[in-house]
Structure formats: structure tokens, C-alpha cells
Amino acid sequence: MARLVIVSNRVPSPREVTQAAGGLTVGLADAIRGQPSLWFGWSGGTDGVDGTDPAPGITVQDNVTYATIPLSERQLKGFYQGFSNGILWPVCHYRVGLMNYSRDELETYLEVNRLYARALAPLLQPDDTIWVQDYQLFPLGEALRAEGVNARIGFFLHIPFPPEQLFRAMPGADLLLRDLAAYDLIGVQTEQDAGNLRGALRAVGVERPVGAFPIGIDPESFARQAARGENTREMGRFLDALGGRSLILGVDRLDYSKGIPERFRGFDRLLKRFPEHRNKVSFLQIAPVSRGDVAEYQALRRELDELAGRINGEWAEIDWLPLRYITRPISRKVLASVHRHAQIGLVTPLRDGMNLVAKEYVAAQNPADPGVLILSRFAGAAPELGDALLVNPLDPDEIAEALDQALRMGRDERVTRWTGMNTAIHAATAASWAADFLRALGETPDPRGAVA
Ligand code: ADP
Ligand code: G6P
């Protein structure tokens, strides 16, 4: 059987794959189940030495080989904190103004992609199909071709692709676009991303197939987790603390693309404009720290600390804390149950590739008495989840009005809306995402045929 090779900057541990935790992992774990696979990427370590190619660390579990290499401190800084997360990430999320461009970091990004290619090429077998994941690895396909790899190589971009003019404002953009020519198929999350990417490729004269393959979750397993976590001691303590108030829930990595300050302001506006909800609601925001070495993320953290303090200072009463803001990660089981108990899932990214949290919120609901999803129009999930209350996340008043509408919504309307969304998350799952992409990749002309 042909082997599937997955390349992603972060490689899950074998335990994470077995438990099929996060969205990307679930999708890919399903794809590799029952077929021999190799998963390649960064070890998470910085014990690499500049100028020396590290030997991959190899672990084998079941039918999957995990091969990872470390980076040097300098490489991590330039490639990961620098170009990937200080330049490409803001630009792809339509925030050119947040980009801190440096030619050095672009060069380190290209260098690390070549390093990955050199380490991966010797591990490949002739019949492999290679699937490269996400923005950290735009040039990897081209770097693999330079190493003589002529297998089919697919690429999937998990984050948005902005309009051509915006993307090409970034120095180095044309180079990355031309490198995409090395892939046999390029997948993105939505039709909008696909249109934008096609426009950008056309502008630099590259013709490659681009398709929209929206990623999903494993709704059944998440629903099971949500129901199972209900009777834990932690949930009991949490429900006691809630004291019967309606729960509004936000769950995101601490990232400026998620619109968390705007959401806090929306909640503040709710309390100001709709006094009947004071002391009747509790907003829980879970936002584990992410990319804490990047300046913009540090600034966001300071902003949120201040905002949370101000909101609680203004509205809290002796027996009521309006906003609970947690930056520590919490276990998935408890997280799923907290979703189930939330009357409102508040998901308001300013821009998001997909947003799996929105789909997880839907999956976790009790079908007989579901909560309401308030979702940003700018999340990749919005076209599929049209039964949510869709909002412009930049308008705190719109968020406040949607919160008020959701808090007053009757059960019949909640059930109707939830049923529509639940159908959508079952129609496109993590497993169908991977299967659809790999099928389409398998149908592209064989690059070896083209060479002969
Ligand atoms: P992104 O990929 O930008 O982080 P997504 O919403 O698409 O955003 O995916 C985030 C994933 O991480 C979801 O599966 C979500 O459940 C998980 N996650 C987010 N916050 C936490 C947390 N505090 N603890 C555990 N898992 C989390
Ligand atoms: C998003 C990106 C992934 C990335 C993840 C966590 O989901 O699309 O590529 O791995 O965020 O970010 P981190 O920088 O911690 O890998």
C-alpha cells in the first residue's frame, strides 16, 4: 500500500494521535489510520546547531513513523517567531500593518524549509504521497523538488489567503507564490480563499489547481467527551460557582486574530445597554497563551489584562464576577463539558481560516436544549454555519445586541438553528476533509508521467 507522508511544523506526539485530540490532528489521524504513514516536522527543540544538518529523531508507533528534527535558536527565531508568525501570519489575516518585515527572517524561513527538505528527502520511498501543511511551509514543495523528489506533493493552507494586492504587499510574496508551482494540488478552507489565491497565482503567471476543502471536526467523539465530562468534580465546582447564571463562553488561543478585546468590549456594552442581564450572566474566556515570544502577542496580553480588570472593576458586585479570564490551558474533557453548559458560544475572530471551536461548540450541545452560537462573519466556518447569529466582530454594539437576542431566544428557535448547524458539522468532518483532499490529489496528473 502506498505510504502517506504528512509534513507539518508541529508534529503531534503518538499519544495525541491515538487520542485524536485537536482538529488538524483528528483529520490527519483519520487519514493515516490503517495505512503506513510518515509524519515529519520540528521536534519542538532548539538543540540544532547552525551549519550542521541534524539527524532526524525517529519514533514508530502502530503504522506511523514520526520523524522530527530540532532547530537552532537562531533558526527558530527567524523562521518561526520571525517570518512565519511576525510576517506571514498577520498578512494572511489581513493585518499588513502588524507585519514586522525583515529580509533576514525571510532568508531564515527559506533556509529552514530547505533544511526540512534535506532531512526528509532521504526518508522518502518511490510510491509515497506527500501532504504539506500550512503557512510555515509554503516553499517546502519546491525545496523537495530541488532534492530530486518527484512524487505527488499536495499543500493545504489552514489559515486565510487574503486578496492578491494585500498578500503581494509583503516583500517575498512573489517568491512564495512561484514556489507553490511545485505542488500538484493546493487546498484552502473556503471558496473566498480559493478565489484570492487563484488571483495571486495568476498575477505571477503560475497555473496550479486550487480547491476549497473546509476542515471539520469529529462531532461524535466531541459530543461524547462533552457528555462524559459532565459528572467530573471540576464541573461540579464550576457549576456551583456559576450559581445558575447564564454562561457565555469564549475559547481561543491568545491571538490578535481572534478578536478577544473587541469581544470583551461587546460584553461591556451588553452590561451597559441591557441592565436586565446584570448579575444574570457570566462570561468565561479561556485563552491559553500562544507565541508568547512575538511582540504583538505580548501587547495583546497586556491589553486584555487591563480590559478584564476594568470591566470587572466597573460591573462586579460583592456576589458576582462578570468576567472570568483564564490563560492557562484546561483539559479537553472539561473543555467539552464547559461548552455543553454554555448558553452562548461567542466566537468572534476578526479573520480565521476555519475556526474549529465554533464547530466544537455545536457538537457539544444537548440536542433537547441547545445553546446559541454567535459567530463572526469573517470566520471560515461562517458559510457552513449560517444558522448561527452572524456578527461583524468589529462592532461591540452588534455583539451586545446578538448577546441580548441569544439570551432571550426561546427553545424552538434554538433547536431549529442548532439542527441546521449540527447537520453542517456532520456533512463535512475531519475525516471527510482529509479523504476529499487526498482523493483529489490522487486524481492530479502523475508528476513522474510528466517527467518521462
Ligand atoms: P486555531 O487553529 O487558530 O488555534 P481553531 O479554533 O481552528 O483555532 O482550533 C483550535 C483548537 O484548539 C480547537 O480544537 C480547540 O478545542 C483547541 N483549544 C483551544 N483552546 C484550548 C484550551 N484552552 N484547552 C484545550 N484545547 C484548546
Ligand atoms: C494554527 C495554525 C497551525 C499552528 C497552530 C498553533 O492552528 O494554523 O499551523 O500549529 O495555530 O500555533 P503554534 O504557533 O503554537 O504552532
UniProtKB/TrEMBL annotation:
<dbReference type="InterPro" id="IPR001830">
    <property type="entry name" value="Glyco_trans_20"/>
</dbReference>
<comment type="similarity">
    <text>Belongs to the glycosyltransferase 20 family.</text>
</comment>
<protein>
    <submittedName>
        <fullName>Trehalose-6-phosphate synthase</fullName>
    </submittedName>
</protein>
<dbReference type="Pfam" id="PF00982">
    <property type="entry name" value="Glyco_transf_20"/>
</dbReference>
